[in-house]
Design goal:
heterodimer; A: alpha/beta; Alpha-Beta Plaits; 14 strands; B: about 260 residues; mainly alpha; 11 helices; elongated
Chain lengths: ~325, ~260
């Protein structure tokens, strides 16, 4: 086995995981430097959760290797578990227990003495704004409060590596900003964070590095700026006045650019990345010759959404709509 | 951040400490879950009141005689049905993701399973105490030696401990707490009522007698009757213990294996 560099906190090489016939991970490589935030970005069902579950020792990969701070997640699982904290996509707190007892339980399970565990629980509840709700059963908490408790639970043991699986899904903007601040604070203290997200803004604002995965494969990796630069050029958007001509528009643009444009199903707007602005006059002329009346024709810089679109072929959701289980079937 | 190098192995002592922490967690629910304690206390009371006054006259001629006959059976009924709780809690833990958290912690792999079982045995003890206390209030009298009666209470707990491994397995494969409830009922109802718990075996039709005579619930109930009110003791106790051992030997390893496979 080749040893990752000393400043690498999380390293995965060629991770493969199948659930029956579904291939959840198809040879994923990723790496996070110590003290940084690595964003695992991808649409629903891309394999983000499965990757986290492999790295956090919850499931065994069918092939490939992964290590956390130099410890192999399969061979040295017990050591890895002493170093990590995990916050799942689903709040994994005991709903029947109070917030305080949830945290005391985790502390005790980590081998912390009773008094210290209680003190740590109170300290974390205070820090996450849950001190007032400390004695209430977790099932009475709001979604945001539960998320915060879950996060607090993963931090009881002061983990050196923290896995956060879609930590902000379902959070209101204020709670989300608070969480971002917390993550920044953690990395400032030297911890390494791997977080999965479907939100480009989150990845852009929070992550030092981003690995984009789709259909179980890594399709891009780099800093947010590198990824944006990769797409490059500008975006041409054309909307035909008659929506039924959208396919003609698409065909024409495909022919002129040699690329596969995307069509928005709602507006019929056809978009494509272009590097040569000189294309526009030609296109206008040809549209005119074919008798296609254009309602809108714009040329602009790519938005983050389009970076995502060009990489994965589909747009990320605007808002957390429904939470879809990412792991296939009944696999837990 | 982490100054100490992580330890390579987990000592059995740590595993035991983990188990006790999780037992504490299970018992905390008696306090925090509003349904837990009432269900545990009211179920045996309901059984006693219902069965004593509905079947009493019809089966034994009078209520008092029937109570002496039926209470050991109710003890079995109440405790055996509460073993379903083990499976329900486990499947709930899986559903809500609590188990994921446990599995990401450096704790003994078997601790969550053993913690749940140990917490539940405490529940069964409570159920036994309630059944006996309320039964005495209705007029039940222990006719055997106190030591024998104590052995009777212990025996039903031993059998329940064995049964809850079956329940645990159900919890691991049923997929939801509701699934455990209905699959469990489908198995538990014929198993418990198809015995001498409420009706003497002799009063049943022949084909049913064959089933009842081989049913471990029958042995357990017979043993309880012997230990609480008098009657044959040795054979039913030995059979009950053998069944308990058999259940543990079969279902505990399967449950542990299924649980490990999920990781």
């Amino acid at each position: 086995m080749n040893t990752p560099p000393a400043d690498t906190a999380i390293e995965a090489r060629g991770l493969v995981k199948r659930f029956g016939k579904t291939i959840a991970l198809n040879g994923v490589d990723l790496s996070a430097r110590k003290g940084t935030v690595l964003g695992l970005l991808g649409p629903n069902g891309a394999g983000k959760t499965t990757a986290v579950r492999c790295l956090a020792t919850l499931i065994r990969a069918d092939a490939g290797t992964a290590s956390v701070l130099g410890y192999d997640v399969q061979r040295d699982a017990h050591q890895v578990r002493q170093l990590i904290g995990l916050t799942g996509q689903y709040a994994s707190v005991d709903e029947m227990l109070s917030g305080f007892n949830n945290l005391v339980m985790i502390g005790r399970l980590l081998g912390i003495g009773r008094r210290t565990a209680k003190a740590r629980a109170s300290e974390l509840l205070e820090r996450f704004g849950l001190a007032d709700a400390a004695t209430r059963p977790a099932k009475t908490y709001s979604g945001g409060m539960r998320r915060r408790l879950d996060l607090a639970a993963s931090m009881v043991g002061r983990p050196a590596v923290l896995f956060l699986d879609e930590p902000t899904t379902g959070l209101d903007p204020r709670s989300r900003n608070e969480l971002w601040e917390m993550v920044r604070g953690l990395t400032a203290d030297g911890a390494t964070v791997l977080l999965t997200t479907q939100y480009l803004e989150e990845a852009d604002r929070l992550c030092h590095d981003i690995t984009v995965i789709d259909h179980g494969s890594v399709i891009a990796a780099g800093t947010p700026d590198e990824l944006k630069a990769r797409v490059g050029g500008q975006v041409l958007a054309v909307t035909a006045a008659d929506p039924s001509r959208a396919t003609d528009v698409k065909a024409l643009i495909a022919e002129r650019t040699g690329l596969a444009p995307a069509t928005s199903p709602e507006s019929g707007t056809v978009t494509v990345q272009v590097t040569d602005p000189g294309l526009v006059p030609t296109l206008v002329r040809e549209l005119d010759e074919k008798g296609i009346v254009v309602e809108e024709l714009t040329l602009r810089k790519p938005s983050l959404d389009e970076v995502f679109l060009s990489l994965t072929g589909s747009l990320p959701p605007e808002e957390p709509a429904t939470r879809t289980q990412e792991t296939a079937g009944s696999a837990l | 951040m982490t100054a100490l190098a992580p330890s390579r192995h987990l000592s059995p002592l740590t595993g035991l400490a983990n188990t006790f922490t999780l037992t504490w967690r299970s018992l905390l629910k008696l306090k925090t879950n509003p349904e837990d304690l009432p269900a545990l206390v009211l179920t045996p009371i309901m059984y006693l009141v219902l069965f004593t006054y509905i079947f009493g006259g019809a089966i034994s001629g009078n209520v008092h005689n029937y109570l002496q006959f039926e209470l050991p059976g109710i003890l079995v009924l109440a405790v055996i049905f509460s073993t379903l709780g083990t499976g329900q809690m486990l499947s709930q833990d899986i559903e809500t993701g609590v188990f994921d958290r446990f599995r990401s912690l450096p704790i003994a792999r078997w601790a969550p399973l053993f913690g749940a079982v140990l917490g539940d045995v405490t529940r069964y003890a409570l159920s036994v105490a309630v059944t006996l206390a309320f039964g005495m209030l209705l007029g039940f009298r222990i006719q055997a030696q106190p030591l024998a009666a104590a052995a009777g209470c212990l025996l039903v707990l031993v059998f329940a401990l064995a049964m809850c491994w079956f329940s645990a397995l159900l919890g691991l494969i049923a997929g939801s707490a509701r699934g455990v409830q209905w699959i469990g009922s489908l198995i538990y109802f014929p198993l418990t009522f198809g015995s001498n718990v409420l009706v003497p075996t002799a009063k049943l039709p022949g084909w049913l007698q064959a089933f009842v005579k081989g049913n471990p619930m029958t042995f357990l109930t017979e043993a309880e009757r012997g230990l609480l009110v008098g009657g044959p003791v040795q054979t039913p106790v030995i059979r009950t213990l053998l069944w308990s051992l058999g259940l543990v030997v079969v279902f505990a390893p399967i449950a542990v294996e299924v649980y490990r496979r999920r990781t």
